[in-house]
Design brief:
Blueprint lengths: L5 E2 H4 L7 E3 L5 E2 L1 E3 L9 E4 L12 H6 L4 E4 L9 E3 L3 H12 L8 E6 L4 H14 L4 E5 L2 E4 L2 E3 L8 H13 L4 E5 L2 H5 L10 E4 L7 H4 L2 H13 L9 E5 L5 H7 L3 E6 L6 E9 L2 E8 L2 E7 L4 H16 L4 H10 L8 E2 L7 E5 L4 H14 L4 E5 L9 H12 L2 E4 L9 H9 L6 E4 L3 H11 L5 E5 L6 E4 L2 E4 L2 H11 L4
Parallel strand pairs: 4-5, 5-6, 6-7, 8-12, 8-13, 9-12, 13-14, 14-15, 15-16, 20-24, 21-22, 21-24, 22-23
Antiparallel strand pairs: 1-3, 2-7, 9-10, 10-11, 16-17, 17-18, 19-20, 25-26
Helix pairs in contact: 3-5, 4-10, 4-11, 8-9, 10-11, 12-13, 13-14, 15-16
């Protein structure tokens, strides 16, 4: 286990400090921003949060063994204190120092965009592993270090947790780290202190406007990954979706060499002769004078883009194009991403994480393309999140489905029925029913399904919970679908 044991004066080098007090020679062995998790020897960071202020818990942190504080205003506590203008913006730098700047010691790939981040990280993990690398992954489904799974709570963890995970990777001999990088993480400084070697952009569609307020701000947050591809290591690379309207802006923002991919525009890696079936996609990639066939077992044009991005990384990394293609062909899917639930029933059930208008359109159009009977779509929208996308998702579901069941997602502190009413503003020209009980909605869809139909359950994907108020309840769309199918006598 890595232990820092650095002096406070060493740790704060390069950080803009407004004032300091106490013994700067105190030895720091760890770091925390949660007073409940402080260990003896920790540097405690007082973060002004959205609901609580870490300064209020500094005394408790000291009682648990914190040896120094990082603050935005002085506290009447007898320990060394470092005062900075914005605590959040320095946590990453401090944590990187505390844990020995681990991103300097491995190749770090960051993937950002509205949709596709999780899938692309999984594809790159497979390519790297097949080439003999030890791989670490941080993302929506948690973290994984050389095959060992570590649960996680958000797409991109807080800065201290990131540095701890990267340090664990280095200690485990990992040579390739892959991270989903959310817009929140970029805006809140969670990845400050990470030296990325490669940045990958998937796409930009409406999401998170409850936080960013405008699409321009959302794009600016994403662009920070590419404008910060600097550091002690050389040969930085930006891999950008050349078909996305944001491409010119991100290309200009990138300080690294750009490799573009796409289907429609002039790009460095272009997909041609695309075949989409219910079993997956097959296409050719043209790059320079080269052609390579790609097969990937997840249906949809969106899967072409995901596979392309991973292929570009592999080839640019120097791997043989055929070996990269073989790795992609071996992947059977990513949990909760267009995942089939099969128990011998005569209709298809697909669970997907799509929770944005664009994401939902991608999966309903794909399901529509191979569905012989009716397409029954079950979805909802999360509470305390971007309300503007709710009617848009209702409109998308209406356009491509034969029957729509609008239900709860994670209502959080909002009234589930009110959320459903906002979704229904966009629903028209299709038979539908509102059912706020998500379990009943999934059972209802299975009861009404006939041979040849497809049920698409969207919004939660891999999630194994539902959030009502501030309480988390066990709930997994895939398990509920299995219960329903079994209850109908097909299991």
């Amino acid at each position: 286990m890595y232990t820092a044991n650095k002096s406070l004066s060493e740790i704060i080098k390069g950080v803009e400090v407004i004032a300091s007090s106490g013994n700067m020679g105190v030895i720091v062995s760890g770091m925390s921003m949660d007073s409940r998790r402080v260990q003896p020897g920790d540097l405690y960071v007082c973060v002004p949060g959205f609901q609580v202020d870490g300064h209020d818990f500094a005394a408790s942190a000291i009682a648990s063994g914190a040896v120094a504080l990082v603050v935005e205003h002085p506290l009447s506590l007898d320990v060394p204190q470092i005062m900075v203008a914005n605590v959040r913006q320095v946590i990453g730098l401090l944590a990187a120092k505390v844990y020995g700047c681990p991103s300097d010691q491995l190749e770090l790939v960051g993937v950002t965009g509205t949709n596709g981040k999780t899938t692309i990280t999984y594809l790159i993990e497979k390519i790297g592993t097949k080439q003999g690398q030890k791989v670490g992954l941080i993302g929506t489904l948690g973290s994984r270090i050389d095959g060992r799974d570590i649960p996680g709570e958000r797409t991109t963890p807080e800065a201290i947790e990131i540095q701890k995970l990267l340090r664990e990777m280095v200690s485990a001999g990992v040579s390739l780290g892959i991270m989903e990088v959310s817009s929140h993480a970029l805006d809140l400084g969670r990845v400050v202190g990470c030296e990325f070697d490669v940045g990958i952009f998937t796409n930009l569609t409406q999401d998170h406007l409850d936080y960013h307020k405008t699409m321009e701000d959302y794009l600016y947050a994403k662009s920070r990954l590419f404008s910060n591809l600097i550091g002690v290591k050389q040969s930085k690379l930006s891999i950008l979706n050349g078909d996305d309207p944001a491409f010119p802006i991100l290309r200009q923002a990138s300080v690294a060499r750009v490799a573009s991919y796409g289907i429609h525009n002039e790009v460095d890696y272009r997909a041609e002769n695309i075949e989409v079936t219910s079993e997956g996609v097959r296409f050719l990639v043209r790059f320079g004078e080269n052609l390579q066939e790609i097969r990937y077992a997840t249906p949809g044009v969106f899967s072409v883009y995901n596979a392309l991005a991973a292929f570009v990384w592999g080839v640019e990394r120097g791997y043989d194009k055929t070996a990269v293609a073989e790795a992609l062909a071996e992947i059977k899917g990513v949990p909760g991403r267009f995942e089939s639930v099969r128990l011998g029933q005569p209709f298809q059930v697909i669970v997907d994480y799509a929770h944005t208008p664009d994401g939902l359109e991608n999966v309903v159009r794909t399901a529509r393309g191979f569905t012989q009977g009716r397409l029954i779509t079950v979805f909802g929208c999360g509470g305390d999140r971007d309300r503007g996308k709710r009617p848009l998702m209702g409109e998308v579901a209406s356009q491509w489905s034969d029957f729509v069941i609008v239900t709860s997602d994670n209502p959080r502190t909002e009234d589930p029925d009110q959320i459903i009413q906002e979704v229904l503003i966009g629903v028209s020209g299709v038979d539908y029913v509102p059912l706020s009980d998500r379990r009943e909605a999934i059972w209802s869809a299975c009861r009404m399904a006939k041979p040849g139909d497809t049920i698409l359950i969207a919004g939660k994907g891999h999630e194994s919970y539902q959030i009502f108020g501030t309480e988390v309840h066990p709930f997994d769309d895939r398990e509920v679908a299995r219960e329903a199918i079994g209850g109908l006598g097909y299991a």
